Amino acid sequence: MADADKVIIFDTTLRDGEQSPGISLDQGEKLEIAEQLARLGVDVIEAGFPVASQGDFEAVRAIAAGVRGPVICGLSRTAHADIDRCWAAIEAAERRRIHVFIATSETHMKHKLKMTPEQVKVEAASAVAHARSYTDDVEFSPEDASRSDFAFMCEVLQIAVDAGATTLNIPDTVGFGIPEEYAERLRRVREVVRGDYLISTHCHNDLGLAVANSLAGVRAGARQIECAVNGLGERAGNAALEEVVMALRTRADFYEGLDTAIRSEELARTSRLVSRLTGYPVQYNKAVVGRNAFAHESGIHQHGVLNERTTYEIMDPAAVGQGESQIVLGKHSGRHAFAATLKKMGYDLHGDALNQVFTRFKELADRKVQLTDADLEALVAEEVGDSIRYAYQLVSVECRGGSSTTPTATVVLDADGEKLEATAEGDGMVEAACRAIKDATGIEGHLTDYTVTSVTGGVDALADVALRFETEGSAMPGRGLSTDVVEASARAFLNAINRIVRVRDTGGHADDVDRPGSLRGLIRP
Amino acid sequence: MADADKVIIFDTTLRDGEQSPGISLDQGEKLEIAEQLARLGVDVIEAGFPVASQGDFEAVRAIAAGVRGPVICGLSRTAHADIDRCWAAIEAAERRRIHVFIATSETHMKHKLKMTPEQVKVEAASAVAHARSYTDDVEFSPEDASRSDFAFMCEVLQIAVDAGATTLNIPDTVGFGIPEEYAERLRRVREVVRGDYLISTHCHNDLGLAVANSLAGVRAGARQIECAVNGLGERAGNAALEEVVMALRTRADFYEGLDTAIRSEELARTSRLVSRLTGYPVQYNKAVVGRNAFAHESGIHQHGVLNERTTYEIMDPAAVGQGESQIVLGKHSGRHAFAATLKKMGYDLHGDALNQVFTRFKELADRKVQLTDADLEALVAEEVGDSIRYAYQLVSVECRGGSSTTPTATVVLDADGEKLEATAEGDGMVEAACRAIKDATGIEGHLTDYTVTSVTGGVDALADVALRFETEGSAMPGRGLSTDVVEASARAFLNAINRIVRVRDTGGHADDVDRPGSLRGLIRP
């Protein structure tokens, strides 16, 4: 952090990103993302908000124990019990950061905290000092900074620095900032608040300005950018990691040597992994990682008119890992070749996890002759989990339907050795298959956010289904992969139901997992 | 345009947006979008690039003849024949603008135009004067302005003003600009170039900065923003219309009364229409129009903690038209109620077009009890076309498949009274259905960009399939809607094939429609 030209990339995909409606990653998925973030070269991973739920706590602990390279950070409110819990979650990491926040805007203090400004100051001092008793790396955020009274916010920031905070983050919590204004605010903080600290940006994209605000912040002296892969996060999301990184690098002339430690050739793959595990598609025209961000890379011949690439190209697609899919395995590939290929791609699977993925690979390879690296990524994403055997396994799904036949589906499930079979009708075959699964498992609920993407683009590609199942006030995501869209949908639906059953059976509350109206709805520095 | 506080919204969805890979709108679709843009209140519609193809020419002419309200603009290179063609396309409009462009950066002049700087000056002068002989409203763009030598660019701009240009657009063609830098460039143009003209921004989003650059441009004196719905456009697209509009309005305090004439409550619907007709999904966390842009609006209970809306909300979802879907029609609704509902939604269908949509409505209503306004929007989008009867009609599709049955589909088509039937197998039922259609029609090719969205979110919602079919070097989009995903896919596939057949039969060249490597690949101010 001593390097004046180094901009620290603080990734909050697993914290702010995971707070997006409908995203609910389990521990295995969070670990997979954290490992990829380490490969990408982020400096700090905000792994979660440990006090929010038992699941959050355990996921942060697993990342702290397992992921090497980046600093592992946990978010915490000011209560000492919260900070203790945060520390317990990150303690096993090589390098640990506690990120303490409290709101400083009038509307938040009054309506949310129900505290006086004096109380907020006391809380901030006490919390930072307590966090500092655990670790030398303490970040402090005055929530809703861009709408806070400037003088009061600086008082609180000074208190935090005096109590030991080493990073001051100035969040534009509601995405209200404009570059000129946000940068000016940061410049004035630097002038007013004394001490040895680093300034950080955290910008939301409600007005489409998160990236611009973050970069303006860096020009004003910030040396850390909080951001998320694919710009995920509350509402319209946070600054997109891939965009801030590539803007700094592509315009090195303007930013005068400021740079990050990101290995940009991992950007496209990180984006795909996060998109798949969160079920949030990336739009085609998304900067840097969208499939059309480099139009020259489309499958259509360019007729030689774009020979001089620099005419329209300011970044090299290969520099962000946007290459063509490569065929890597076929139906005759054995277990050894399979494991070796995965390893080369950075997935280090063993034991049951490897067996599970290999079994699914053979099933798919039997039906689709060649599998590309993108197919394998999707396959691993489908099977990534916490290696718990789920309550229900899909034995088979058979369906029929058409424009003049009522769509009908029959599913056979295996529930711990017992065969469950059910047949149902629906408006379409997907609905029929989902109804049959509901009938077989006896679980009722409502399905939302159903999307299908084709892994490599064509109709002969694998279908990757992401959906969300709401039952009794809580919601669970599900994902499924198959050469057939109805089967992929049935798999995704059963996956969601299995997650619900698991949460119920392990005594957890389903609403630990997704309850935007409770604790998680309140925290978003 | 005399109002100093008025920022003109110049929409280029139908020109730069339509140049995105895989987007190819037909005349009926372009008209539908243009009509919605008029309802939205944009000031200028850049309706296309008339010389690019016969299809482009006719679409621009139809919009000029049919759409009232906005200025209708056509893009043109500097050749007089191009300008004549442009004028012929827009002549029928109430108010007409010709937009002339020529590149001024060294790399573009050398590698693309193969012209000397002197030649470029001569071209600019002659083209603007010729355009001005047709209309008083002439816009001039020095392509790749942000990488052009400043002094030379200003010389060319001065020549354009002296020849009669009334708007000077400063395009950041490659998305290379940074707000501070881009704004400074505009400020200096204002200082250097004499005359009575208005400055316009045109920013690409390759580094995620298009919106910020446009707004910085306005602060520097620009009074026109070129932008596109959903940020569509070449590569990572243009500045998103909805974001620039809402940033100016939400931060009226900062922008000191600068405003547009946009009716913001039409933003969400415009976004949905454009997404559907182009087949480009909008990501969930997209600012303003993404489904999660207002997290509070999600279907999940908020448990009362967000009572004070301003705590986290800077825009009212209703202000951008992001409300809940309303159930508007059921299976017992008659033709009159149907037409009246469409009319209330702004769709004024008559004759064959109304009959066609009504027939499809009854088919769907028989299978799905209630249809929402979003369903109707999708239905109209599916049927919008140029009211030509296509070569093939889908009579029926029947399929079966499953985890242990080879997916099989049988389709029956009607080709001008003759029944064509074919049965095929595939890796999945969708592929089987598409193969059967290929067999029945004898048309071979390759399918790409297959996506499914559910119109209202759930699995019981209508499935809306968008895909693209490539054959002999050209590509055509197709769309289909059904309660069943396989049927929707078959409809979309047949739709693409019908378009290909139509282009062939009308003597047009398929590559008029989508040829990014030819003329269209070259023009992107």
In short:
The structure is a homodimer of 525-residue chains. Chain A is built from 18 helices and 16 strands.
What would you call the quaternary organization? homodimer
Termini distance of chain A?
23 Å
> Are there runs of chain A of 5+ residues with pLDDT below 50, and where?
296-307, 509-525
Helical content of chain A stands at: 25-40%
Strand order of the largest sheet of chain A: 1-2-3-4-5-6-7-8
- In DSSP terms, counting alpha (H) and pi (I) runs of 4 or more, how many helices of chain A? 18
Rg of chain A computed from alpha carbons, rounded to a whole number of angstroms: 24 Å
What is the number of beta strands of chain A? 16
Structural class of chain A: alpha/beta
Q: In percent, how much strand structure appears in the residues of chain A?
A: 15-25%
Describe the sheet with the most strands of chain A.
Answer: 8 strands, parallel, barrel
**Looking at the structure, what is the overall shape of chain A?**
globular
**Average pLDDT score of chain A:** 86
List the chains of the largest interface with their residue counts: A-B, 131 and 131 residues
